[in-house]
Design brief:
133 residues; mainly alpha
Length: 133
């Protein structure tokens, strides 16, 4: 196998490993969220702002479980109304800001690294003296 083929294989293996880890973490988080929701639903007290923030922040991680057909609780039916909904919305937005902010900085770092490597491997231009004026 050539060096280029080996490098591509390593990248693919690393990508598959990262996806597998993410799916496993999402599955564990989904199980935890479902278990916690079942415990919290046992109380007669309605869900408030803090629980809305928590459920809103964890909601995107429920997607892998929902895709494979598992019913995961992502919203509390017994809630306090506007405070819970504000917390839920804030949690979803905070989670999205963190995820997409991290993704943005990773892409910017990759773009800068690519530019640096392209500039380092570029052929030097012939510098011809220019006459003033």
């Amino acid at each position: 196998m050539t060096a280029t083929g080996l490098a591509i294989l390593r990248k693919v293996v690393r990508l598959v490993l990262r996806i597998a880890i993410l799916v496993c973490l999402a599955g564990l988080l989904g199980w935890f969220l479902n278990h916690a929701a079942a415990q919290l639903e046992k109380t007669a007290q309605p869900a408030g702002f803090a629980r809305g923030m928590l459920q809103g922040a964890l909601m995107p991680m429920a997607l892998p479980n929902l895709l494979v057909g598992k019913d995961v609780t992502i919203y509390s039916v017994n809630n306090s109304g506007v405070p819970y909904k504000l917390g839920y919305t804030g949690g979803v937005n905070l989670c999205g800001a963190i995820f997409f902010g991290f993704l943005y900085f990773r892409l910017r770092k990759l773009r800068n690294w690519t530019r640096r490597n392209a500039n380092a491997t570029a052929e030097p231009r012939d510098s011809q003296p220019t006459s003033p004026g």
